[in-house]
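Researcher: Structure prediction, please.
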Amino acid sequence: MSAAEALSQVPSDASAVDRQEFPPVRSRRMSTRFLRSELRLIYGRRRNIAGMAVLAVVPIIIAFAVRYSGSPRGGGGEGGFIGQATNNGLFVGLAALTVELPLFLPLAVAVVAGDAVAGEANVGTLRYLLARPVQRTRLLAVKYLGVLIATITAVLLVAVVGVGFGLALFGAGPVTLLSGTQVSTAVGLWRLLLVCGYLVICLAAFGAMGLFVSTLTEQPIGATIAVVGLALLSQILDSVTQLSAIHPYLPTHYWLSFGDLLRDPISTDQIVPGIVSAVVFGAIFLAAAWARFGSKDITS
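Model: Predicted structure follows.
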């Protein structure tokens, strides 16, 4: 057969050949397997389960203490919320959030965030995890998403247990806001949900800080202690009036501003700066974690 005859047998429609020999590749759906594995790791660890149990016990103690010891004097902060608990059980959840915010909630978030990367390096699975292969950016994103979900769980756990035991022991009724206005129980629940959302935003920024520290070490306990220490240091500095100039720049300064969500109308003078501060701190430390982890030599 001559070359001319061979060429004459080649189909003129090249696209038809392409369709026959190279079928279109189907796009794969984004898998959540990695995230589900991370959540099983978080909620399966005994120390995390123990931490959640401690978070849940505090509102129970508050509810029974108020129920069987009488109503405490009113006032600001958690004392005022506890005093209102006898009128409406919703305030048990608010009081528990206020009591646990300085230490217990940050500690719960720090344990998960500090263990995110350092825990993998400590047990020697980080190198094998990246060899699957898993992109470092994706791994860091999944780790932070796990921290965020754990943060939401911790805040809602305190609020739900507090409201549940509060309503069981004191019942529901008109909710008296900090401004003196009375609203229905449904509106009170909505305000409580707003408080939970605000605290999640604040603690999510704290979780980003913990994730960054976790990329600096292979010891999760050390990362946890360092992050909790930073939170306590920030709160100590925030209590020193002589340092008022730096207070707005501290990561914990606006945490207790959620009380503005319990006014009528809602005051945004502290809430908006608090959200902005949390977003800025979260973005800074997530970027720092990405820069550090992206250039880190994985030896374990």
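Model: Residues 13-28, 72-78 have pLDDT under 50 and may be disordered.
Researcher: Thanks, that helps.
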